[in-house]
Amino acid sequence: MDKKRFQADVVLLVCTRKDGVCGKKGARLRARLTEAAAAEGLKKRLRVLPTGCLDACGLGPVVLDPASQTLYYDVGKDDALDIVRKTARRHGLEP
Ligand code: FES
């Protein structure tokens, strides 16, 4: 087995499970979070990755900050920037 350091300080996971309830909403949310991270100057430090079911079906779309065990649910269109800012503050990321 080989390994290397992952090139981000913080990761947010967005459920984009296609056959689940999150699906397209999750994919759009991931895009908005990625744009918000870039707008905050955190493009390389805060990565937004797709994932499968986060066991919060029915609450979606959902975002997990695994390092702090924070789950955002019922996330709306205008919540991306707020989530990115809260995540950055929680992990001490400076733009
Ligand atoms: S399908 Fe998204 S949390 Fe289960």
In short:
The protein is of the alpha+beta class.
Plain-language structure description:
The model has no long low-confidence stretch (mean pLDDT 94). The longest helix is centred in the N-terminal third of the chain and has 17 residues. It contains 2 helices and 4 strands; from the N terminus they run E-H-E-E-E-H. It has a domain of 63 residues. Helix 1 crosses helix 2. The relative contact order is 0.25. It has 95 residues and is α+β, with helices and mostly antiparallel strands. The site of FE2/S2 (inorganic) cluster has 11 residues, from loops.
Q: Which structural class matches the secondary elements?
A: alpha+beta
What ranges have pLDDT less than 50 throughout 5 or more consecutive residues? none
- Kindly state the percentage of residues in helix: 25-40%
Radius of gyration: 13 Å
- Give the helix tally: 2
- List the secondary-structure elements in sequence, H or E: EHEEEH
Overall pLDDT, averaged? 94
Number of strands: 4
Bound molecules: FE2/S2 (inorganic) cluster
Secondary structure: elements and pairs:
Layout: E1 10-15, H1 23-39, E2 46-51, E3 63-65, E4 70-72, H2 80-90
Parallel strand pairs: 1-2
Antiparallel strand pairs: 1-3, 3-4
Key attributes of the depicted protein:
95 residues, alpha+beta, 29% helix, 19% strand, globular, binds FE2/S2 (inorganic) cluster
